């Protein structure tokens, strides 16, 4: 073998032996580092991606807004590539996701089956995620009415109170109930309730522990049909397309499992947190009377129809999506 052919053979062998360059995906979340989402969702997802790609793709999680403050900016961080994957609520950038947010309307999905129904119809949302790749979409536990000092036993009790809402749609529901909606991310609710900036919040029961809202809440009202928020994990499109086809398939499957894990975790922790709150001296969970439930639901029903009609008028196939979510 000549020196030239030997060098060529060695170079070829080196190329074959050289492992593919590892890719680290940054995942950004504004929630505190102690939030249960880390162990329930992100750790299993990271493990599945690493194992499924033989360690060629890994995930590094940044909690507490470490890659940038402001929950409402999360979606843009994915678009701009500040992080490859971000967690957020579509309600924080509601104008971008009118179809996605139809699922949060009272009565559209069931908290136990809503995530599976959204995943089964996820292709119907593709037009809203052209700038990113939708990896995960799941619903939380039902949003309840938390108040600091005013117990809500009827719609009259809610009249004129400033109530934090997670999205425009939820705000319209609160307004129909007689409250004054105040748009605010979950991270700001504690201080706002503590200082009296708001009288209460429409929010799910996991926040009693995850955001320590049990410390500033004395009453929680349950029983009416209410908004059920969605969470998503979206990925920078360039980052996704830089992966091989096999790696993309692994990431998508890990994202789907993350959605199911997220839904299960939110429901379980919400139930436990609400039970613990009810058992705490000086705290009260108010179960609305049948008459009060009927009044709340009658007030919100026209809002649901109004939002669907507005979306249809804007060119969104809203009614078809709502009907698909309800089909089993």
TrEMBL record:
<dbReference type="InterPro" id="IPR038404">
    <property type="entry name" value="TRAP_DctP_sf"/>
</dbReference>
<protein>
    <recommendedName>
        <fullName>TRAP-type C4-dicarboxylate transport system, periplasmic component</fullName>
    </recommendedName>
</protein>
<keyword id="KW-0732">Signal</keyword>
<dbReference type="InterPro" id="IPR018389">
    <property type="entry name" value="DctP_fam"/>
</dbReference>
<feature type="signal peptide">
    <location>
        <begin position="1"/>
        <end position="22"/>
    </location>
</feature>
<dbReference type="GO" id="GO:0055085">
    <property type="term" value="P:transmembrane transport"/>
</dbReference>
<dbReference type="Pfam" id="PF03480">
    <property type="entry name" value="DctP"/>
</dbReference>
């Amino acid at each position: 073998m000549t020196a030239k052919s030997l060098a060529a053979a060695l170079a070829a062998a080196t190329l074959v032996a050289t492992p593919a360059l590892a890719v680290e995906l940054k995942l950004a979340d504004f929630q505190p580092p102690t939030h249960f989402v880390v162990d329930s969702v992100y750790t299993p997802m990271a493990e599945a991606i690493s194992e499924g790609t033989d360690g060629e793709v890994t995930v590094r999680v940044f909690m507490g807004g470490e890659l940038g403050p402001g929950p409402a900016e999360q979606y843009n961080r994915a678009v701009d590539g500040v992080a490859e994957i971000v967690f957020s609520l579509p309600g924080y950038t509601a104008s971008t996701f009118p179809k996605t947010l139809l699922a949060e309307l009272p009565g559209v999905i069931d908290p136990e089956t809503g995530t599976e129904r959204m995943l089964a119809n996820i292709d119907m949302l593709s037009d809203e995620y052209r700038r990113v790749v939708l990896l995960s979409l799941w619903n939380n536990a039902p949003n309840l009415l938390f108040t600091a000092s005013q117990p809500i036993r009827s719609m009259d009790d809610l009249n004129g109170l400033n109530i934090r809402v997670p999205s425009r749609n939820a705000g319209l529901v609160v307004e129909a109930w007689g409250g004054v909606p105040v748009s605010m991310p979950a991270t700001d609710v504690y201080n706002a309730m503590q200082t009296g900036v708001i009288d209460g919040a429409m929010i799910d029961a996991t926040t009693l522990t995850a955001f320590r809202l049990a410390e500033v809440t004395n009453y929680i009202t349950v029983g009416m049909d209410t908004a059920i928020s969605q969470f998503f994990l979206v990925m920078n499109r360039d980052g996704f397309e830089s992966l091989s086809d096999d790696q993309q398939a692994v990431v998508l499957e890990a994202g789907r499992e993350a959605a199911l894990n997220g839904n299960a975790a939110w429901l379980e922790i919400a139930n436990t947190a609400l039970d613990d709150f009810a058992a705490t001296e000086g705290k009260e969970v108010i179960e609305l009377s049948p008459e009060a439930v009927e009044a709340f639901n009658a007030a919100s029903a026209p809002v649901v129809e109004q939002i669907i009609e507005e979306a249809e008028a804007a060119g969104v196939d809203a009614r078809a999506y709502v009907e698909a979510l309800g089909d089993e």
